[in-house]
Every structure is written in C-alpha cells, then in structure tokens.
Write a structure and sequence with these properties.
Chains A, B: InterPro entries: TrmO-like_N, YaeB-like, YaeB-like_sf, YaeB_N_sf. Chains A, B: This is tRNA (N6-threonylcarbamoyladenosine(37)-N6)-methyltransferase TrmO. The structure is a homodimer of 162-residue chains. The first copy, chain A, is 3% helix and 33% strand. By secondary structure, chain A is mainly beta. The first copy, chain A, has one domain: Elongation Factor Tu (Ef-tu), domain 3, CATH 2.40.30. In chain A, the strands form two sheets. In chain A, strands 3-4-9-8-5-10 form a six-stranded antiparallel barrel. A three-stranded antiparallel beta sheet of chain A has the order 1-6-7, with no helix packed on it. In chain A, 33% of the residues are buried. At the A-B interface, β2, β5, β6, β7 and β8 of A face β2, β5, β6, β7 and β8 of B.
Amino acid sequence: MSTDTDLRSGEVAVDAPLPRDASLYFIGRIRTPWTSRLETPRQGSLEGPVCRLEIFEPWVAALQGIEGFSHLQVLYWLNQARRDLVRQSPRHHDGETRGTFALRSPVRPNPIGVSTVRFVALEGSTVLVRGLDCLDQTPLIDLKPDRCVFTPEAASDHDDGK
Amino acid sequence: MSTDTDLRSGEVAVDAPLPRDASLYFIGRIRTPWTSRLETPRQGSLEGPVCRLEIFEPWVAALQGIEGFSHLQVLYWLNQARRDLVRQSPRHHDGETRGTFALRSPVRPNPIGVSTVRFVALEGSTVLVRGLDCLDQTPLIDLKPDRCVFTPEAASDHDDGK
C-alpha cells in the first residue's frame, strides 16, 4: 500500500458499496503545469498560470457564449483520491482529525472539485482560464458561469484565493 | 413526449453514449418545501426557508466539525434533467439560444447543481441550511465549507441570490 493510501492516526474509513447511484461523462480534460501532487498548489490563484480546458465531442457546441463571462465555475473529477474516509487528518492540520464534509480535501465519497476561475480566452474547443489547482490530465465534468457575484475585481486581484 | 422534454426552437441535442466514465454515491437526500418545478425558485436565497440535508449511512460520521462554518457549498444531482442538449433556449431568454456551458440550467451533460448555503444547525444526521433552490427529494452528492470568502454578511442579507 502506498503512503498516499495509508491511514493517519485518528482517520476513519468506511466499508462503502461500489458507487452506482448515477454516472458521469468526462466532457473534457484539464491541462495544467502540475504533474505531481507535491507541486500542485493547495488553492488556485486567479493570477496563477493559464490552464486549458480541452472539451471533447459531442460537447464542443455547448461552449457557444462562454466568452461573455469573466468568471466560470469549473467542476472536475479528482480521480486519484480514495473515497472511503469519513474522518481525515489533513497534512496541514497538525494531527487533528475532522469529518470529511467539514473539509475541502479531495478525499471524499464523490471526489468532485469546484473552482472559480477567470476566463482568459476561447480557442476553438479549448477554454483558457486562470485559477485552477488540479493535476494535469484531470477529467473535466462541467463548466458554467460563476454566481459568486460579490467577488470584487480589485480584491481578487490581491488575493491568492478565489 | 412531455413538454418538459420537447426541444424549443433552435435547441440542439446530441447523440451521446451512456455515461460511464465515473460513478456517484447519493450520500443523502435534500428536503425542501418545493414539490414541483413551477414553484421552485430559480435561485436560492440565503434568507429563504430552512431546508434539510438528510445524510445517509455510512457517511454520517463525516459531518463532524461542520457546525464551525457559516456557509457551505452543497452539490446535488438534478435527476429530472435531460443530459443531451448542447444549445438551449431557457424560458426567460426570449427565444435566444445559448451553449449549455454558458448557462446555469439544470439541463447539462452532468446535471450537478452547486449552491452556497447558510448553515443553520446540525440535528443528528441532518444539516439545516438556507439558500437552496431545488426540488424536494433531490439526491445530495457532497457538502463542504464554502470558499466564497468575499461574500460580505451585510450585502448577502440584502441580496436574493448567490
């Protein structure tokens, strides 16, 4: 067993059946500069590097009009995360454990990441954005206009978060 | 065919294979006051009615610590939505069509709703929140602390959205 899947002190895994309540399409693939977890930022920056959302057919036509939005919400599938932990001890929490739903850890029953990103450009079937914090080749499951209307442009320019 | 699944003028459906790239757990069930789409609000209000997130086993232990957060991000599965439209003409858009990814419509390849809600209380295995806009009995797929740190309390008190 790799160190990635070992349990830390206080962590609790459950015996869950195989998931089959609903199924997802991977509608595309995310290209980022990060190829290992160690170099991937914990939280994306709206001033971070440009990343690419490569959309697969038959979904490319669904991009029409996307360039009208300054910020998008991106959903992706954290396919390297285990799904059976209900209590976790994140690396930066000094050994304290917390319930999975009280954390934004990628380890969760349904490992879906949600990020708000800044729209940069549309190039054919690829959307360029800033603000992601996931590994290169992460499967994309959705993108839509962001609803976080209170994000002031000036404030987000100086924040490393969202 | 019901009127819900008829195409409007300009809408485009694609011939997509069955989705099977990844599978989801329904980790719980959302209880809201709305039992038909006509009465469901288009966008939740943080001052709206209290709704209940009923968590199923074996995931209840994952709630530990959730009460420390004022706002949560809730992900749910819009199980009544069709999944094959790439261009849509939403009811309030006066016949204009737009790409699915340029809309927050529930009709999308992966019909996942994302809402920011206000935490109200934890009662056993049920989380009480305000701010949802989905039908009663909607399957729940995730909840986690919200990252929309720029939402000022005063502003959200007077807004009907986000």
